[in-house]
Amino acid sequence: MNRYGYYGMWLMLTVCLASTVCKARAQAAADYTTWLKVGVQHDVGKRLGLSGGLEWRTKDHVGLTDRLGLDIAAQYEALSFLKVGVGYEVHYRNRGEAGWKFRYRYHADGTLSAKWIRMKFALRERFQHTWNREEKEFRLRSRLKISYDIRHCKAEPYASVEMYNGLGRGEGFGVARMRYRAGSTLPLFSERWKADVFYCRQWEKDGRKNIFGIDCVYKF
Question: Whole-prediction pTM value?
Fold first, then answer.
């Protein structure tokens, strides 16, 4: 891709994001939120990787803290095109008048990946179980992600769509949530640091969210 194609791709991405934000502003029910995460990654051998992170999320138009989170995970490269992983999360959530409460989650996933010219494709299927004292939730999360490896450039733009299907009794595998996300990974500070800067549009039956986020990872 020459420089004009590169500039054109970024222009198209900017226009799409601007259009999405403008449409989101027209819907009064939509909430504006932020996600900020700092994590670490470590490769144990050629196939096994470990990771962990701390996350802070806001809500109510960035006016309140929504939750604080801690997660740990492991990922194993079973085949050149297949990775499997497991993880565990703890959330400390702001439930308004009910106060702050803990919530717990574990997940297991598999990711198929492929590359065509400089385009990368990844399909991830994730099962997750989330619970606290009052309730429990089972979800199957299906995510398709497409990214572009720019020649002689460390930035990698991407777009993804993710669907949450309910697995609980009476949910009938219905769509409980959708996420449409676009962003780019960027080098930060040094080669060991990377940042993922993104915008995500989230749909649920009881509300909409416009999420602006930064995910920083240190690899050692």
Answer: 0.85
